[in-house]
């Protein structure tokens, strides 16, 4: 299937609504925690994040690093740190070993704004931060991870709607308990496909068969042996939906391969890390700040 036949559809009304809500949230905080999907650390980033956040410092988390090829992540972290000027930490929602490191770093990033407030004669207050990122990169999971040890909600702040609640992480840090969803308008269909691979885009926006085909193309280039082993494909077999359907014996009545069922399972297997641990981006790809 040719890539030019695939198109991920976007919904402008949803984008405008997300942008408005995110800007309201950003006005409340000193710093942000930006969540990226470690399997696509470049493609899951918003291409005008600096323009969106203005002067807000940010801590960048490679979330779902337990599903990614960690041998490649260090180079991506170094690239993003160099080009953005902000620190990167590898993380996953299931492990709390990095919790203190995340809290310490985000408090540190918030300190300049706290100092500016104090210079105006106001008392020191806890740093206020929020979590932002594309849909389904694990924002809520990171919020839950940060707040697991402290469920103390401090209530609404002055000028903040009642829906905005703060959770006291420690005496130095308060976290907005609702995630900021970065607008999803995406002109680059290659990036859009990668976002579909990791389930950052509603399934209503694309064909499972088309997207699974494109995923298999990338995996067959980067990790062919891992895919062949998982789906019991011979070295002579093409890595495609047809052969995987035959390997799994997913055959319709009449002998036709069930491509839709196979595509759904391929995407699910990838997203759950069953096939293996992968990074689909290339270091040569550019980051637009």
Describe the model.
The model is unreliable at 154-162 (pLDDT under 50). This protein is an alpha/beta fold. Strands 1, 2, 3, 4, 5, 6, 7 and 8 form an eight-stranded mixed beta sheet that branches. Helix 7 crosses helix 10 (259-271). The longest helix has 21 residues, at 99-119. Strand 2, helix 3 and strand 3 (88-90) form a beta-alpha-beta unit. The protein starts with 11 loop residues before the first helix and ends in an 18-residue tail after the last helix. It has helices spanning 12-26, 49-53, 70-84, 99-119, 139-147, 189-197, 208-222, 224-231, 241-248, 259-271; strands at residues 31-37, 58-63, 88-90, 127-133, 153-155, 166-170, 173-176, 180-181. Helices cover 41% and strands 13% of the residues. It contains ten helices and eight strands.
User: Helical region count?
Assistant: 10
Q: Sheet with the most strands?
A: 8 strands, mixed
- Give the averaged pLDDT, no decimals: 87
Instruction: Write down how many β-strands occur, each being a DSSP E stretch of 2 or more residues.
Output: 8
Helicity range: 40-55%
Shape: elongated
Radius of gyration: 21 Å
The topology string of helices and strands comes to HEHEHEHEHEEEEHHHHH
Termini Cα gap? 33 Å
Percent in strands:
5-15%
Q: What is the strand and helix layout of this fold?
A:
Blueprint: H1 12-26, E1 31-37, H2 49-53, E2 58-63, H3 70-84, E3 88-90, H4 99-119, E4 127-133, H5 139-147, E5 153-155, E6 166-170, E7 173-176, E8 180-181, H6 189-197, H7 208-222, H8 224-231, H9 241-248, H10 259-271
Parallel strand pairs: 1-2, 1-4, 2-3, 4-7, 4-8
Antiparallel strand pairs: 5-6, 6-7
Helix pairs in contact: 6-7, 7-10, 9-10
